[in-house]
Amino acid sequence: MSRKGPLSPISHTGASARPRHHYISSGLALIALGLFAAAASLAVVKPQQDFDRPEFLAARQTLVLPELQAAEASPSFSSPFIDETLIRPGDTLASILQRLNINAPGLQNFLVQDRDARSIYKLYPGRNVQVAQDDQGNLTWLRYYHTPGTLENGKFISKWLEITPKGDGYSAQEHIEATDTGTKMAEGEISSSLFAATDAADIPDAITLQMAEILGSKVDFMRGLRKGDRFRVVYETHTHEGRQTGTGRVVALEFINDGKTYDAVWYQPAQGAGGYYDFDGTSLKGAFLRSALKFSRITSTFGSRTHPVFGYTAQHKGVDYAAPTGTPIHATADGIVEYIGNQRGYGNIIVLKHQGNISTAYAHQSRFAPGIKKGDRVEQGQLIGYVGATGWATGPHLHYELRVANQPTNPLAVDLPVARALEGADRKAFASATNIYKQQIQLLASLQQEEGVQVAAAD
């Protein structure tokens, strides 16, 4: 019978007149009894002759061990090790192969000489190159995703070159396959430049260029950015076999410049061409771009100045943008080619006629975009030529003029035309189709404002 409370002495008497005392707690007694019971099931217990002799327990059990089996040789690792890199400005084929640590003797010579591998001759910055190698470091395949996420017949497809070992050499083959399209969200803050901020937010350069183009009529990305300006963007990504192969278009964008918020969202109506609108449904396409160049710097503004060639003071009828020869020039608004050719001091010049008795001129071009002629209709953002130094120019730059009723006007100060807004059923359809992207932009804003979280790039 177990007892609770302080330990109680238990006396054992026998042949010896000297008593023996053992202090056993109730809990220990139960454990001891359990051990004795377990031992009894495995052994023969020698009977106790008297209380003065210690108890002896003898236990013996023969254990049969399983036979040891020779371990089967593990199969070789069948899945390849895949590595990838993005092409950087200035990269060469040799630098890419070296960065990927490719062990493939003769591969570079094959890529340079084989006509079927000619797509790798042009390395586009931002495009993806992947390599797969086995566990011995031997080449399984090399892929160059030279045309990722191209829209054809209503589907986004990816085109890539694949190189595989063949005998003592290699084989090159082009592939075309539908890609999986998803979206990413990112946000950042301007500290020095737009590209520095988007690089810090892990945003591809192709998306950065789109951001500048989409809001080019609202934000002066060349001279109007302020430290502390913020942006939030949602853009498409294209993947193949779970790996990103490229980016698509920007689907939503918010840019806070000098305390003022500008936004844009892509909308594809049931009828007609798609385009960018602000969140209230006002089209951004009808407005003029602030500049015909993506990124540049102003070297001469509108107004009186000393002529750089002749030295006299004269009225400068436009704005000069310094840029290297060959820099692409884009139309600042939809229009019709009114003049294309050479005009004395202007050199190679294109004049576009727009709505509202407005025209624009693009002078000193090195050459015109192929196929453009007088009377052609051009769209806002369309390539029309390249920066040069023809005519009366001391160096390569674009001379840009804005003319209202054929009178030169300062393009940096004039209030440019405002585009039309969607109404009625079109407005409801727009709200329904774009609400999800507006919510994503609002989510990024709430994370930043409430928690101070900076989202680099989130799926």
Topology, pairings included?
Elements: E1 9-12, E2 20-23, H1 26-40, E3 43-45, E4 57-59, E5 81-86, H2 93-99, H3 107-113, E6 128-133, E7 139-152, E8 155-166, E9 169-178, E10 180-189, H4 194-200, H5 205-214, E11 230-240, E12 243-257, E13 260-267, E14 275-277, E15 297-300, E16 303-306, E17 313-316, E18 319-322, E19 328-330, E20 335-343, E21 347-354, E22 358-368, E23 377-378, E24 383-387, E25 397-404, E26 407-409, H6 424-451
Antiparallel strand pairs: 1-2, 3-4, 5-6, 6-7, 7-8, 8-9, 10-11, 11-12, 12-13, 13-14, 15-18, 16-17, 18-25, 19-24, 20-21, 20-23, 21-22, 22-24, 22-25, 25-26
Can you tag this structure with a few keywords?
459 residues; alpha+beta; Nuclear Transport Factor 2, Chain: A; 5-stranded antiparallel beta sheet; disordered N terminus
Concise summary:
This protein is an alpha+beta fold and 459 residues long. It is built from 6 helices and 26 strands. Strand 6 and strand 7 (139-152) form a beta hairpin.
Helical content band: 10-25%
Category from helices, strands and their pairing: alpha+beta
CATH class of the largest domain: Alpha Beta
The total beta strand count reads 26
The unreliable regions are 1-51, 73-77
CATH architecture descriptor of the largest domain: Roll
Q: Total helix count? A: 6
Strand content: 35-45%
What name does the CATH topology of the largest domain carry? Nuclear Transport Factor 2, Chain: A
What is the CA-atom radius of gyration, in angstroms? 39 Å
Mean pLDDT: 79
N-to-C span? 69 Å
Structurally, how many domains make up the residues? 4
Major sheet summary line: 10 strands, antiparallel
Categorize the overall geometry.
globular
